[in-house]
Design a protein that fits this description.
mainly beta, elongated
């Protein structure tokens, strides 16, 4: 997928992405484009609610010079901290000592899931006056206060770094165990829920990491200027899917902010396979095996009773053992299947991959870039060894240590007829000779294959590039209350469920009506109480949202302006500042006040923008209700009136205002109950990174509906499709 964007917009996108609290789970590439609509205040421009120097009385400015900066900062911090006074509910998150959780230190925060009262979350924080960033994954039970740091990695931030090192995490369930997949600045790590490292693909030992591999495959530094990893998703086992955005031009050096920047999007997949050392081994065949058998049998035609050992020595003098290329073999019954011939890179600094007729990069090595593996010895560690299959789409790296070398022998048999002269005596006592034809058989044990066994712990890395039509449009649902999750792909106006986008099943494809302007949708997989999938699609302006569940023909759609009715929108607190904080801001002047400018968070200020993490699907397929959470507009429950396909008309229904105070996100904890994080104060404004201080609130949806204000969503005029 190819996109064109201006250098100025791209630079702002990268800045804004570094401030984002949530990775939405929607189309990564399209989210980036949507961010360009965020208001950016240029020099000389201010929003109506931001204080300017002209608003500060002259005597206040004079007084300001008489106060110490430390004293003012202390007052400001006190005013900010006061916003958390008077809120009820238990803390949602815990931070260990040395991990500051204030808004100035936190660079990134993401809730991975809520399981049985335990929040799993990842964050990036940077202590004041430190050039070191802390990347961490932790869990905390808000009921019993049990806390544990699962991962901590400290990396030095670049002096000119405008954002953060890529850091993505995902919680998932495998069997009865919960695990966390982490991508951190090129390192791929798999943890259990105690923080034990189950698997890692890192550069800790001085080797290459995943980003090094991605750079080589996509020729970063050659065809492309840079590569950005925008997420990581696992299939619940040891398969990993990594959306990659490739940037062709140096946007940092662009002379013109409107200079076009070309970006390509691909999906890079990685699969970790353990070698079954009981059935898998490195083999090579005796290429003269057929000639040896044939000649051994031909020697019997010379007549007479043969000596098998002498004949075999003659066979070897003419047809000595000649060993072919090494390959990975798998024992199946009595047969050994060739999985692929082993090769080595001619120069590991110049790994070149085959060109694809489709123009899609491949991980299949170019023939001139590899050579045959010449030899193996016991105790040798395999380095830069790959095996090549017929399919020109993937690369297979074999890593391990050679344990032993064995000769696999087979029995060579022959049956032949020979003549033997015997002496007999007739009735008169005279001797005479007779030629007698006899049948004989013999055999020898001969080497037909060499086998090299591998030490326990050997493994295979499998890399592949998916089609660009998929690009970074891989989507995943939040982790559900039973620990499961769903993922798939969005293509134009379709959602394809499952891990194979190139061979989708018809029943796993959800199609939405084409958008009015012909643009693609933002498509998200939602958190559902039931086991199936429910998909949300919205236009890029977030004016209209479509909801559709798999296996059910019903589709609900509405305009977000109708959902957020006027009486509810009046409670929307954009720009409203805490009075105490404003008074302190007046004392420090406009320059310091700028750091409290909330304009960079305008994206979340819009109550019409809902992502996959802000909608919870209650009920059952065909009888759903939808719980919407909004950072500035509280939490609302939307109940459609009927459940037939609305055919393009806005689906009528009822909306209950469950809360009118800030809610970051909600999760089902049972069929009718949800737990949400936020602050139950409406007299102040909270910021995105205040999530670290969020409290937990539980709601019984059926009960709270009885006392919640409501408004009706009317029927709209059907749209032509």
């Amino acid at each position: 997928m190819k996109r064109i964007i201006s250098a100025g917009k791209l630079f702002r996108i990268l800045i804004l992405c570094s401030l984002t609290v949530f990775f939405t789970g929607c189309n990564s590439g399209k989210d980036l484009e949507g961010l360009t609509d965020v208001p950016v205040y240029n020099e000389g421009e201010v929003s109506e609610d931001i204080l300017t120097i002209d608003d500060i009385p002259e005597e206040t400015v004079v007084l300001e010079s008489q106060l110490s900066k430390d004293s003012l900062n202390e007052k400001i911090e006190g005013a900010r901290d006061a916003r958390f006074d008077g809120v009820s509910g238990p803390r949602a998150f815990w931070f260990p000592e040395g991990h500051p959780a204030d808004r100035d230190s936190l660079k990134q925060f993401h809730v991975l899931g809520l399981i049985n009262g335990t929040f799993y979350y990842s964050y990036v924080t940077q202590p004041e006056d430190s050039d070191t960033q802390i990347h961490a994954v932790a869990r905390y039970n808000y009921k019993n206060h049990e806390a544990k740091l699962l991962l901590e990695r400290k990396i030095k931030a670049d002096a000119d770094d405008t954002g953060n090192k890529a850091f993505h995490a995902q919680l998932f369930k495998r069997g009865r165990e919960y695990r966390i997949c982490v991508y951190e600045d090129g390192n791929l790590i798999l943890l259990d829920n105690q923080g034990k490292k189950l698997f890692s693909f890192t550069d800790d030992a001085g080797g290459k990491n995943m980003l090094d591999t991605i750079h080589k495959v996509f020729d970063v530094g050659g065809e492309y200027y840079d590569a950005e990893v925008t997420d990581v998703i696992t299939d619940g086992d040891y398969g990993f899917y990594i959306p990659v955005t490739l940037i062709k031009e140096d946007y940092m050096q662009a002379e013109d902010a409107e200079q076009d920047i070309t970006m390509d999007s691909y999906l890079f997949s990685y699969l970790y396979l353990t070698v079954d050392t009981g059935t898998q081994m490195i083999c090579r065949d005796n290429l003269n095996w057929d000639n040896q058998q044939r000649y051994y049998r031909q020697l019997a035609a010379r007549g007479g009773l043969r000596d098998p050992q002498e004949d075999w020595e003659e066979v070897l003098s003419l047809y000595p053992d000649r060993w072919g290329d090494f390959y990975l073999g798998t024992l199946r019954g009595e047969m050994i299947t060739n999985e692929g011939y082993l090769k080595q890179w001619v120069d590991t600094d110049k790994e070149v991959f085959t060109d694809s007729e489709t123009g899609v990069p491949t991980t299949h090595p170019d023939a001139d870039s590899v050579k045959r593996l010449e030899s193996l010895r016991v105790g040798e560690t395999l380095e830069n060894v790959i095996f090549v299959k017929d399919s020109p789409t993937a690369q297979y790296d074999l890593i391990g240590e050679v344990k032993s070398q064995l000769m696999a022998a087979k029995t060579v048999e022959r049956i032949y007829i020979y003549s033997e002269t015997i002496t007999e005596t007739d009735s008169e006592g005279n001797e005479y000779t007779t030629e007698v034809m006899k049948t004989a058989s013999d055999s020898v044990e001969a080497n037909w294959k060499q086998k090299f066994t591998l030490e326990e712990g050997a493994f295979i890395n499998v890399y592949a590039v998916k089609a660009p039509s998929i690009g970074t449009d891989i989507i995943k649902s939040p982790v559900k209350w039973d620990g499961s999750f769903l993922f798939g792909y969005s293509v134009e106006n379709k959602c394809i469920l499952g891990i194979d986008p190139e061979r989708p099943k018809e029943e796993d494809t959800l199609t939405f009506p084409a958008s009015e302007d012909g643009s693609d949708y933002d498509i998200c997989l939602l958190n559902t109480v039931y086991s199936g999938a429910c998909v949300m699609a919205s236009d890029l302006a977030y004016n209209r949202i479509y909801l559709k569940s798999a296996g059910n023909r019903s589709r609900y759609d509405y305009q977000t302006a109708v959902l957020n009715a006027a009486d509810l929108a009046s409670r929307y607190r954009t720009g409203k500042k805490d009075e105490t904080l404003l008074e302190e801001m007046k004392k420090v002047g406009s320059q310091d006040a700028a750091q409290f400018d909330f304009s960079e968070y305008e994206l979340q200020d819009n109550p019409s923008i809902y992502t996959g993490e802000n909608v919870v699907v209650m009920g059952t397929p065909g009888a759903e209700s939808f719980l919407f959470t909004s950072f500035h507009n509280g939490m609302q429950l939307y109940q459609p009136v009927d459940f037939i396909n609305s055919g393009g008309a806005g689906t009528p229904g009822t909306v209950w205002q469950i809360s009118d105070w800030p809610i970051y996100q909600a999760w089902p904890v049972s069929e009718n109950k949800v737990a949400a994080i936020g602050f139950d104060r409406t007299d102040t404004v909270y910021e995105s990174m205040d999530i670290a201080m969020a409290r937990v609130y539980t709601f019984d949806v059926n009960e709270i509906k009885k006392s919640s204000p409501i408004h009706k969503v009317p029927i709209e005029t059907p749209n032509e499709e």
